[in-house]
Amino acid sequence: MTPEQLADTAPAVEAGTGSPAVSLRDATLAYGERTLWSGLDLDVAPGEFVAVLGPNGSGKTSLLRVLLGLQELNAGSVHIGGGPARRGSDRIGYIPQQRALDANVTVRGRDLVGLGLDGHRWGLGFSGRRERKRRVADALRAVEATEYAAMPVGLLSGGEQQRLRVAQALVGDPSVLLCDEPLLSLDLAHQRKVSRLIAEQARRSGAGVLFVTHEINPVLPLVDRVLYLVDGRFRIGTPDEVMNSGTLSELYRTDIEVARVGGRLVVAGAEDDDHHVLGAGEA
Ligand SMILES: Nc1ncnc2c1ncn2[C@@H]1O[C@H](COP(=O)(O)OP(=O)(O)OP(=O)(O)O)[C@@H](O)[C@H]1O
Prior knowledge:
Blueprint: E1 22-31, E2 34-44, E3 49-53, H1 60-67, E4 75-80, E5 83-84, E6 92-95, H2 109-114, H3 119-122, H4 126-142, H5 158-170, E7 176-180, H6 188-205, E8 208-212, E9 225-230, E10 233-237, H7 239-242, H8 245-252, E11 257-261, E12 264-268
Parallel strand pairs: 3-8, 3-9, 6-7, 7-8
Antiparallel strand pairs: 1-2, 1-4, 4-5, 9-10, 11-12
Helix pairs in contact: 4-5
The structure holds adenosine-5'-triphosphate.
Adenosine-5'-triphosphate binds next to α1.
């Protein structure tokens, strides 16, 4: 690891207490000449909630793509749910970065959520079908989407579609949850609800959570650790260890002020006005 990398490499799982939900060792990802990050060591313990922060283009989505088996590392290793990262694993729940579904998409919300269930596990018999139906209904209820579950998803609002994506990711009871800006286009009440549902999945089922976000405040009370990526450098630690003026100034290589105002974090100085960690009045 180079001195530039400021990672705390202490494993999140104590020896003998089970394997991490996610494990990266000395991981490097580069596109051509551009290295997004290198020497990344990260263990996410079962039940742990890790927020992934960083400016545009710092490689947050690319990290999730590596964990989904969609992108190869240039060096190092990745394990997820105890095995190598591979496409289509049914142990991973994934909430992709939001793109509005086309108005012509006619699949119903209920069926979209059902796609999150592994057909083989429940079988095709009557009891399997009943169990599937029950699980989908529970997931729809959890995100308050029952009311519009029979509508073609293309006709739903951005926030309504997003709640269905959350239900789809949670319905299969995953052991790892990869969330890419899951709170985008949700109103404040649903931001809270969805954040809590994701944290509950971590606590109840022992799912390891990686939660990419530009705004830490809605999830600050739920977060165990933060991975902060800036321009190839990174820092991993508790919110207090990472979200302070000294650490962020070091990461951004410029003066950053971090203040706590009424339980919220206010960050000033990075990326001018459009800094991704927003001010006190936002979110
Ligand atoms: N397949 C690819 N080939 C080449 N460059 C890529 C590829 N995928 C992503 N990149 C580049 O890598 C950088 C990191 O992209 P990534 O989407 O991981 O960033 P991010 O941190 O999620 O950004 P944002 O906050 O804007 O969503 C970007 O500059 C992007 O253009």
